[in-house]
Design goal:
8 strands, alpha/beta, SDR family NAD(P)-dependent oxidoreductase, single chain, NAD(P)-bd_dom_sf
């Protein structure tokens, strides 16, 4: 069973709308204190006010070291980190023609951004001997699924994010911290407006991964509530 009986503090990046907001609502619904993190602090504040309770809003640009440090100072130590912030800007481009600067932008946000924020909050988790980090990944970054040539920069950034997941999980193994990646599938957000799956449905899977029990898996790729190949 998930540890929903224990109230934790959870921070979600890219939480101003869509899937990030739905994850905040799902975790708050489980009784956890939620920190809504987004580049637009006013929008984050609006979401926090609508969720209610002691939900906190913080500004966070995952591509900026100073912003990540300020976010940690403002939010304090957290038990759960959901790295949801991401971009998809190369839909329809090909691996042979996608501009390298666009590849770099995807990596800065989707991969290094999640890595940076994890580094900001992981020391507190290790000190307390309990933590959950969830990387919101994609099937487009899974070699078992076949990398998606129609969004090459996005696919590479998510494959790299999966690698970061494994590295952090190995470093923290048997220290009370579980680090996993979730493939939520195609979710109806600004990235995929025509997708069939709702953010609320996908958020349930992410919230489950964010509240795994002590004997839960670490360093794995999850779809729904099962492990899938990288």
């Amino acid at each position: 069973m998930n540890e929903t009986a224990v109230r934790r503090t959870a921070l979600v990046t890219g939480a101003n709308r869509g899937l990030g907001r739905a994850v905040c609502e799902a975790l708050a619904g489980l009784g956890h204190r939620v920190v809504v993190a987004g580049r637009d602090e006013r929008e984050a504040g609006r979401v926090a006010a609508e969720i209610g309770g002691d939900t906190l809003a913080v500004a966070l640009d995952v591509t900026d070291d100073k912003s990540a440090r300020r976010c940690r100072e403002r939010a304090g130590a957290v038990d759960i980190l959901v790295n949801n912030a991401g971009v998809l800007l190369d839909g329809g481009m090909s691996p042979s023609s996608v501009p390298p600067e666009l590849v770099e932008r995807h990596l800065r946000v989707n991969t290094v951004g999640a890595w940076r924020v994890s580094q900001a909050f992981l020391p507190d988790m290790l000190e307390r001997g309990w933590g959950r980090i969830v990387m919101v990944s994609s099937g487009t970054g899974a070699f078992s699924n076949g990398l998606f040539t129609g969004a090459p920069a996005y696919s590479v950034s998510k494959a790299a994010l999966n690698a970061v997941t494994v590295l952090l999980a190995e470093e923290t193994r048997d220290r009370g911290v579980l680090v996993n990646a979730v493939n939520p599938g195609r979710v109806r957000t600004r990235m995929y407006p025509g997708a069939e799956r709702t953010p609320e449905d996908a958020a349930v899977d992410i919230a489950w991964a964010a509240t795994l029990p002590e004997d839960g898996p670490t360093g794995v790729f999850l779809r729904g509530r099962r492990t899938i190949p990288w």
